[in-house]
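Quick sanity check, Flavin prenyltransferase UbiX:
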Amino acid sequence: MAEPVPTRRVIVAISGASGAVYGARLLQVLQGQSGIETHLVVSDAGWRNLQHELDMDRPAVEALAHRVHDVANVGAAIASGSFQCHAMVVAPCSMRTLAAIAHGLADNLLTRAADVALKERRRLVLMVRESPLHLTHLRNMVAVTEMGGIICPPLPAFYLRPQTVGEVVDYSVARVLDLIDVPHDLAPRWQGLELNAP
């Protein structure tokens, strides 16, 4: 008898852009959600950034996911369209990873899994991290958008008056959770602005 599929499988990928905290925080939040199974894939540069930016070693990061896949293992389950998956998030997404996804290179497990998400018309969210942007960056974002992916740069919302870096991070992660239809109470929602009458 076939094993029942969890309510939702979410692939979390961490590439080599600055902002490893977004991927780590997303994993932490998803770990606390019932009915969600996370699959993690990290590029070589992603592992270096997790260590450099967060002082997180590999075992600490791997403990946040249900399953961990080596980026070089293109034969892993998440490389196939037959792997049932709710969504994939690349957090953060480097310009190199964006370019590979935009051009369908599928040259490692991370970019292959993203390619699968696009071809199967599944939700793919890229938290692209770079500034300023040149024309090729912008064209690659357009290409991914035209294929059905969602470009979601991690940008602060100052109207919520964040007081800590953690609140800034949580706001961006909350936006991603909304995009992949995962309920949360990670950040306050905008209730509108009431102006005093003149």
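Posting the structure with no commentary besides this: The chain has a mean pLDDT of 94.
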